[in-house]
């Protein structure tokens, strides 16, 4: 099986590291409600690249790096759609319905999308490990639902920097993964194994 | 003969006068001090105690930065102009603007702080600027000037222009005390210090002292920023450990973060890695 180079994953993780290294970039790229309304629309898409602490960056990058690498290396198609939806959807929703949210950032939406896409792709293969992939999906769904109901970040304690939990970000990643999987299956119309570019 | 002896006496007398004044000049040491005090500003009436209450910190915070007025009994020539103060405040506050729990930092001109204004003055500033927390900067700079052995060359007159016989020491301390205005409680503080040793000719002494003073403030400000970062981290830990002493609330306009957290990330990695490994094995 030929493994592909995970270009998109490397680009996103590398960009996040670069932005963290140069805080002025973070100030320029983070979702900032007032700045967006003043015309800086690029922030809707670049917000995921900004992180507020080392652990915030570290854990997000680790999961996106691992899951994204697996997705791209195994040849899953349309991963770019997962990333696009996970990056753009939260910002566009928040600008419309969350006027109290001033700033947001973090790669967790893309990371969640990558994990969800990997799980969905393997679920469709009808292999023996479906239970494990389903368990991962359920764990992610459970976390989102708990954060929605409790309005506190579960497990996340980024160096004591206080922030509000944003479960919509993770849900957007899920949504992106579902869209990509749906498009792939419909365009192929065959065994979802064909979603991958390798045999 | 008598004329000659008169001339000799005059010369000897002149030499004696010059040497005496020269000795006095040689032993002359000068010291100047420029200082301000947060305690004098906040607690001018020493018999009245201001009892702080539990601070309620609504995140994100609006922070003010201001230099405390010089105390009247310690004032000397003003070394820091308003522009200098603004530049220093700009430099110090620049490090903290991007913090997610800081909404805004206002630099407050010195004219708005009245000497011994205390918390009443801070309440007025709070109303004017809408700030929650204020960082009060105070300074203490002492400059000593001594004359070294090279100052003997001043007798040549030319030496006063070219020989650096004056030895200067400039010691500066800058202190930042962060107060929650509503509760009157000091949240944390941090110092910044610097010491500059230099030399100057007799003629350009005052110019060199001004340069040393400015450099002293600049280095102390750099040191202050480093210590402020440290103390801020310690304060964040203290707030987590003692929630009964500090109440933290989130208000509208807050920062949100998409974050996975360590335990969750490791769980995902473990399960995902296991599933992929089993896939590969088959």
Please describe what this structure looks like.
The complex is a heterodimer of chains A (199) and B (282). With 199 residues, chain A is mainly alpha-helical. Chain A is built from nine helices and three strands, in the order ααβααααβααβα. Chain A has a two-stranded antiparallel sheet. In chain B, the strands form two sheets. In chain B, strands 1, 3, 4, 5, 6 and 7 form a six-stranded mixed sheet that branches. With 282 residues, chain B is of the alpha/beta class. Chain B has one domain. Chain B contains seven helices and nine strands, in the order αβαββαβαβαββαββα. In chain B, a hairpin with a 4-residue loop joins strand 6 and strand 7. Chains A and B meet through helix 2, helix 5, strand 2, helix 7 and helix 8 of A and helix 6, strand 9 and helix 7 of B.
List the helices and strands and how they pair.
The complex is a heterodimer of chains A (199) and B (282).
Chain A: H1 7-21, H2 23-29, E1 31-32, H3 33-37, H4 43-46, H5 54-73, H6 79-97, E2 101-105, H7 108-123, H8 130-150, E3 164-165, H9 167-188
Antiparallel strand pairs in A: 1-2
Helix pairs in contact in A: 1-2, 1-5, 5-7, 6-7, 6-9, 7-8, 7-9, 8-9
Chain B: H1 2-27, E1 30-35, H2 38-42, E2 56-59, E3 61-67, H3 82-94, E4 102-107, H4 118-129, E5 133-147, H5 158-162, E6 166-180, E7 185-200, H6 205-241, E8 247-250, E9 254-257, H7 262-281
Parallel strand pairs in B: 2-8, 3-4, 3-5
Antiparallel strand pairs in B: 1-5, 5-6, 6-7
